[in-house]
């Protein structure tokens, strides 16, 4: 398919057909397509200062303004921002920050990263190694040493909250070897899996008990996607580091970053010359990208898009629950404007439906809806093909209803 135009929650292809953008393209066009003010912000910045290095001792006004804005809407314990060009680079930076922090504390043996099965953290080598989906490893083995995976909180498939699995992994690996735990507040590409309400409060206590940093991967869940600016706010939890990307510019230009706690920030700022944080990238703090980020946040605040995501998300989940009546649907779950519909071969046994989701997505496309699936798997950690929904935050009630209508028709046609 060749897309040529977009407006709001609608994409148009080269043949003139229109489609509802059911996944905000790749979870990232939060303010919707066709926002001329973001193009204007980029053009204005490029006329003044398109690019300048942000290496040691240098910065630029848009980067400063965006960092200040981010820290105002993010968790209260956060203090500094390092900008990247995207999500995988943000997670790579977070892993290096975790190692750096513990080395500065005189504990250089704390290097390992614990992540979760079904979690997705990017496709560079370390981020791929943290990703808990074996299909992303298969053709690129071996993975980077020092990464281990635990089961997530996944109420449909696993009993209990799942937090005990983290504690078991820390004690098994040895607390003096574990630098950080990384998790998406709501697993996104792995099948839209929200946790039980007690999961992240328990995770925070476990990390504190064993001196393990908590990295919140909010690349998908940040910037209003779940009905809060950042998703851990749903459970009153503050992480040590936050990796972000996608919604920070609503994908109009590539940008990501890591926000760090005061404790980590101070360890960087107070380091002697021999222990400096030797980490930088050519395009970190790119003025034009940051100017678009500032203009993007202006739209969020002016139009109340975080609150809108909460309201539209409630409608989306309520309408999607009606799909449970279909024989092939096992679970419907979500938070804010994130929704997953897991397909099963048998409702009673929860046997995963495999190689079905792609056909459903094809039927949906023919009916005017673009979305993606999490391809299911069996084995030790079964999951059925899962249809993922995460439309732009500007989606209307009528468009929400139409998305669910299309999926009902498409699932019925296939199953």
Description:
This protein is α/β, with parallel strands linked by helices and 415 residues long. The protein has 2 domains: 143 residues, Alpha-Beta Complex (Aspartate Aminotransferase, domain 1), CATH 3.90.1150; 267 residues, Type I PLP-dependent aspartate aminotransferase-like (Major domain) (Aspartate Aminotransferase, domain 2, 3-Layer(aba) Sandwich), CATH 3.40.640.10. It is 35% helix and 18% strand. A 7-stranded mixed sheet has the order 4-10-9-8-7-5-6, sandwiched between helices. β1 and β2 form a beta hairpin. α11 packs across α12. It is globular, with a radius of gyration of 21 Å. The mean pLDDT is 97.
Low-confidence stretches: none
Q: Supply the helix-strand structural class.
A: alpha/beta
- Give the ordered list of helices and strands: EEEHHHEHEHEHEHEEEHHHEEEHEEEH
The strand order across the widest sheet is 4-10-9-8-7-5-6
Number of domains: 2
State the major sheet.
7 strands, mixed
Short description:
The protein folds into two domains: 3-34 and 304-414, Aspartate Aminotransferase, domain 1 (Alpha-Beta Complex); 37-303, Aspartate Aminotransferase, domain 2 (3-Layer(aba) Sandwich), CATH 3.40.640.10.
């Amino acid at each position: 398919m060749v897309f040529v135009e977009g407006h709001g929650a609608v994409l148009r292809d080269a043949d003139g057909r229109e489609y509802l953008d059911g996944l905000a393209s790749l979870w990232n066009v939060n303010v919707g397509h066709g926002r001329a003010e973001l193009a204007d912000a980029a053009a204005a910045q490029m006329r003044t200062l398109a690019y300048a290095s942000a290496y040691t001792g240098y910065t630029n006004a848009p980067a400063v303004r965006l960092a200040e804005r981010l820290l105002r809407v993010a968790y209260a314990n956060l203090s500094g921002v390092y900008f990247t060009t995207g999500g995988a680079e943000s997670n790579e930076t977070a892993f290096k920050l975790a190692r750096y922090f513990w080395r500065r504390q005189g504990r250089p043996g704390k290097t390992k990263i614990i992540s979760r099965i079904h979690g997705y953290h990017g496709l560079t080598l370390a981020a791929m190694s943290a990703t808990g989906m074996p299909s992303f490893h298969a053709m690129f083995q071996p993975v980077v040493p020092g990464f281990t995976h635990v089961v997530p909180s996944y109420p449909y498939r696993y009993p209990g909250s799942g937090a005990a699995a983290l504690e078991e992994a820390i004690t098994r690996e040895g607390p003096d070897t574990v630098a950080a735990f990384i998790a998406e507040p709501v697993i996104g590409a792995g099948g839209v899996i929200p946790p039980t309400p007690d999961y992240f409060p328990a995770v925070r206590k476990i990390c504190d008990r064993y001196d393990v940093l908590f990295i919140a991967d909010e690349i998908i869940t940040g910037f209003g996607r779940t009905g809060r600016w950042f998703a851990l706010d749903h459970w009153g939890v503050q992480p040590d580091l936050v990796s972000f990307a996608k919604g920070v510019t609503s994908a109009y230009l590539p940008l990501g970053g890591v926000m760090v706690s005061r404790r980590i920030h101070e360890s960087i700022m107070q380091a002697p010359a021999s222990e400096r944080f030797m980490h930088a990238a050519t395009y970190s703090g790119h003025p034009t990208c940051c100017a678009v980020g500032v203009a993007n946040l202006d739209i969020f605040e002016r139009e109340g898009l975080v609150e809108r995501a909460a309201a539209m998300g409630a409608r989306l989940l309520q309408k999607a629950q009606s799909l449970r009546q279909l024989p092939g649907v096992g679970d419907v779950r979500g938070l804010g404007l994130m929704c997953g519909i897991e397909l099963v071969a048998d409702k009673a046994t929860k046997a995963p439906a495999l190689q079905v989701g792609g056909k459903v997505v094809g039927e949906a496309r023919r009916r005017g809806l673009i979305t993606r699936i999490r391809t299911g798997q069996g084995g030790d950690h079964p999951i059925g093909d899962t249809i993922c929904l995460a439309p732009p935050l500007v989606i209307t009630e009528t468009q929400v209803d139409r998305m669910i209508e299309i999926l009902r028709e498409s699932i019925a046609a296939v199953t």
